[in-house]
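Q: I'm building a small set of examples for a reading group on sequence design. Run inverse folding on the following structure and report the sequence directly after it, with nothing in between.
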């Protein structure tokens, strides 16, 4: 905190010394003036990324994400200004600047190409907005506007991200959840809202759940693959910035209503959205409010398998499991944006967004265990139902919430621009009354067909009406996970010189305080249930595996399960329960404070060259407290040891990172851009890895050890790219990037001795370590354009595509037992990522066929290479169509279909044929109507 206070004081002192200006409509120097305003199109839509260039001075600026621009330090007089935008006819203005005044001037561009072929609309307008923002950035940035998102069948932000070059997404229940940028795992990428990093609702990781945020609540998605000194540095893969809807230029009102159908749940869905914005008090107050609601009954058909190695290194199947999921996913999102113009030089704003996702889930599972002992009649079968409380739809409810509220201001004191912001964000995950009812039968001789193919299966008929069953598990748990972030930043921008060799200095400081708590309390009741009710569950059975169950071509046999309503109605208050200490062993409290400051210097080197030099300092202070858990074995119990947890006490750690950056941009001409950069970024360890706890299971001879001495991974990044922008709206791009990632983190799994408890030959020892260094080299290419360049009649057809290749290699691997392994790829790094979209748009019709591919990658490392878990390759295909009609009131009727190839989520172990998990979701269709006033 002292560092932050000193930095803030120094910056404030600099402000006073350099610009002793009053906060009125006058500039500090009465001889200079300012021009400020907003760039819009003929429909009064704001145009971000517009170029405003003063030809007299050979200097200019670019409009921001909301279309605002500011020209400062102008001597009184008349200036000729050129305003240009990809796909729009450039215009020339003559602007008069009076002495010592700030002039407000909004600029309207007319839609239409230089060849006067068409008026821009629909997907062309969306591409235009995105391309202009990319075109004028110093770093490598990919932008998706809300117009573009609306042209794809994407229900959440994660699904929209998979269309961007170099991004792969990982799925949960058929929807994109985590994003991977440029061949790096999700924990190496940051997700921000309006520049503020979002906290995570997950208990153990920093990864942000992208499926929490509906796609129709975001105005723009920016993927910054090269971060600058004024951005948070924890972004090795990149930074995904979600910009919420800003206040409009004039009144706007949009509504969406739709429904859908899922092949697994076979129930209707509901989608609803509403957006309203306007300006009040002579346009000084802007308001934008939006709401989105989605209710989607979905589900999945799932199989899971486990393997192990014998003494000769041969793999064998140990367990197989059939799972049927029924889920109702409900998403709610609310946002509000306010801005208030005090006067032309001073503005205040507020932005807030709240997202809420309910998952009501029931899971029905049949597990075949100890299959390696089946020949000796020592295998077992478990039949399990996951349910919830009576007042929670008889289902386990997972309630995840995120919110972000920010208050800030932008001020102009003479030549000095100042912006500040304070924000509060919170993410949480609650699972109240999560219940499991498991039945077990032992001593079975099971027969497994095709044990080493992708879909092994047990041929025996399993019935609860045959054999001796016991209640093996009856639990009720409550989980509360929450993370809060409080931030404050202060930034200054001071131009020194205008013209072809103009320059400016930007500097600032930021303080962020994070706190994270994980609290799980679970009790088991199976013993008392059996004593009181015996096998009463036999009166409450039902069949749940679908007739059209997809994995393995229907070879998995249905069976009966204990009904969810029976479990929900159980009165646990009348049962005597026993605390499950193992579930609480992962609980923790964490606090993290990051104080940062930066300097960024921008230098224009003639008309066509720009250079940016920067350095960022981030000081991190950590404080963690967890719980040590010990479960005694038979010998320890006889000696009087009891199971329980003991606090670890608080442990602290501090470190400082100084991170330089150099960016260069060459404007070969107005349409051809070349960029090169060196940046230094980091990725902090996951929360659970830093907790200083030891989970010691002497009964099963397993131990999990926290590692508070983990250091953040550091990356040295080099980028070179070239983009060519077509005047008829389009882009061809190519780039190469290299990352040297030091001290990346992996979970190490070994066996043998553990120094903390000598004398026991542990079967499994797990701990997270700084695993070593990695080289990552990648190539990105992209192309998007309509086919009008071939023939004017083909203007209505277009193609959007990109491809990313990454090569990675791990060096100095610090994984016990695997130190000498060669040619190992970095975990979380797919080799190939490709996206393609073919679209048609004419006379209000819009049809788009989209395809996504990502190759397999290592997701989790095992004790041996044959036990590594891989996320298998994926191929997704989506189709959507719409028709728009009307002038003053525009109506759009749409229909869309997702996952036409029925791509499963699939993990395999070691080799492709050894499935660990295959989860199928079926096809999902939606249809509805959108109205814009």
């Amino acid at each position: 905190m002292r560092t932050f206070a000193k930095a803030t004081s120094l910056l404030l002192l600099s402000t006073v010394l350099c610009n002793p200006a009053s906060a009125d409509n006058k500039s500090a120097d009465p001889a200079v003036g300012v021009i400020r305003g907003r760039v819009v199109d003929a429909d009064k839509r704001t145009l971000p990324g517009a170029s405003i260039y003063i030809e007299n001075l050979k200097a200019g600026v670019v409009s921001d994400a909301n279309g605002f621009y500011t020209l400062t330090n102008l001597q009184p007089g008349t200036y000729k200004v050129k305003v240009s935008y990809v796909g729009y006819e450039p215009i020339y203005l003559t602007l008069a600047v009076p002495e010592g005044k700030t002039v407000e001037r909004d600029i309207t561009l007319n839609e239409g190409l230089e060849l006067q072929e068409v008026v821009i609309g629909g997907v062309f307008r969306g591409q235009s907005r995105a391309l202009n923002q990319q075109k004028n950035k110093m770093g490598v940035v990919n932008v998706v506007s809300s117009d573009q998102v609306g042209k794809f069948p994407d229900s959440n932000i994660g699904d929209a991200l998979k269309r961007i070059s170099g991004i792969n997404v990982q799925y949960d229940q058929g929807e994109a959840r985590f994003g991977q940028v440029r061949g790096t795992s999700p924990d190496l990428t940051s997700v921000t809202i309006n520049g503020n990093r979002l906290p995570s609702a997950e208990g153990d990781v920093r990864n942000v759940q992208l499926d929490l945020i509906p796609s129709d609540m975001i105005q723009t998605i920016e993927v910054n693959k090269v971060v600058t000194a004024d951005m948070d540095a924890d972004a090795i893969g990149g930074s995904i910035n979600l910009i919420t809807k800003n206040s409009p230029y004039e009144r706007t009102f949009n509504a969406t209503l739709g429904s859908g159908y899922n092949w697994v749940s076979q129930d209707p869905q509901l989608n609803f959205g509403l957006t309203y914005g306007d300006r009040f008090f002579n346009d000084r107050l802007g308001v934008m409010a939006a709401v989105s609601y989605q209710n989607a009954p979905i589900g999945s058909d799932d199989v899971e398998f486990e393997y192990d190695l014998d003494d000769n290194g041969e793999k064998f199947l140990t367990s197989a499991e059939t799972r049927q999921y029924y889920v109702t996913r409900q998403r709610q999102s609310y946002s509000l944006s306010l801005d208030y113009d005090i006067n032309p030089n001073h503005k205040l704003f507020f932005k807030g967004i709240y997202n809420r996702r309910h998952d009501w889930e029931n899971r029905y599972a049949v597990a075949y265990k100890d299959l390696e002992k089946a020949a000796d009649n020592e295998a077992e079968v478990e039949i399990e139902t996951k349910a919830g409380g009576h007042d929670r739809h008889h289902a386990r409810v997972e309630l995840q919430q995120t919110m972000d509220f920010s208050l800030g201001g932008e001020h102009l004191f003479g030549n000095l621009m100042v912006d500040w912001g304070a924000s509060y964000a919170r993410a949480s995950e609650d699972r109240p009354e999560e219940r499991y009812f498991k039945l077990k039968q032992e001593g079975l001789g099971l027969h497994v067909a095709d044990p080493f193919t992708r879909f092994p299966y047990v041929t025996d008929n399993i019935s609860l009406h045959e054999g001796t069953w016991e209640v093996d598990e009856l639990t009720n748990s409550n989980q509360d996970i929450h993370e809060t972030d409080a931030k404050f930043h202060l930034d200054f921008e001071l131009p020194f010189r205008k013209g072809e060799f103009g320059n400016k200095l930007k500097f600032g400081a930021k303080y962020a305080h994070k706190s994270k708590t994980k609290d799980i309390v679970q009790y088991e009741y199976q013993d008392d249930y059996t004593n009181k009710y015996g096998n009463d569950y036999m009166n409450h059975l039902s069949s749940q595996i679908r007739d059209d169950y997809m994995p393995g071509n229907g070879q998995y046999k249905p069976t009966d399960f204990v009904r969810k309503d029976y479990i929900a109605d159980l009165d646990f208050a009348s049962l005597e329960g026993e605390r499950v200490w193992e579930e609480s062993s992962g609980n923790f409290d964490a606090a993290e404070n990051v104080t940062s400051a930066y300097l960024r210097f921008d230098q224009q080197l003639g008309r066509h060259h720009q250079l940016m030099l920067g350095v960022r300092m981030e000081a991190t202070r950590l404080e963690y407290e967890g719980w040590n858990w010990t479960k005694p074995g038979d010998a320890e119990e006889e000696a009087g040891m009891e199971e329980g947890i003991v606090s670890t006490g608080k442990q602290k750690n501090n470190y400082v990172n100084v991170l330089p950056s150099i960016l260069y941009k060459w404007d070969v001409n107005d349409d051809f851009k070349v960029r090169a950069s060196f940046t230094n970024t980091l990725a902090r360890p996951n929360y659970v890895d830093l907790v200083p706890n030891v989970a010691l299971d002497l009964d099963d001879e397993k131990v999990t050890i926290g590692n508070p001495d983990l250091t953040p991974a550091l990356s040295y990044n080099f980028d070179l790219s070239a983009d060519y922008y077509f005047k008829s709206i389009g882009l061809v791009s190519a780039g190469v990037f290299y990352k040297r990632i030091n001290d990346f983190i992996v979970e190490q799994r070994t066996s043998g001795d553990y120094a903390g408890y000598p004398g026991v030959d542990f079967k499994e020892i797990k701990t997270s370590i700084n695993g070593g260094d990695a080289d990552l080299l990648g190539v990105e290419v992209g192309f998007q354009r309509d086919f009008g360049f071939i023939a004017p009649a083909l203007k209505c057809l277009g193609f959007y595509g990109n491809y990313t290749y990454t090569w990675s290699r791990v060096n100095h691997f610090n994984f016990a037992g695997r130190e000498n392994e060669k040619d190992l790829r970095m975990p979380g790094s797919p080799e190939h990522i490709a996206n393609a979209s073919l679209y048609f748009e004419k006379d209000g019709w819009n049809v788009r066929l989209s395809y996504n591919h990502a190759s397999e990658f290592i997701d989790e490392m095992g004790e041996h290479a044959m036990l590594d878990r891989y996320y298998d390759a994926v191929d997704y295909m989506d189709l959507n169509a719409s028709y728009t009609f009307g002038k003053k009131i525009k109506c759009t009727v749409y229909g869309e279909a997702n996952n036409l190839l029925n791509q499963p989520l699939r993990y395999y172990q070691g080799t492709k044929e050894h499935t660990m998990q295959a989860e199928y979701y079926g096809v999902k269709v939606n249809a509805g109507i959108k109205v814009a006033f």
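The chain has one domain: 141-932.
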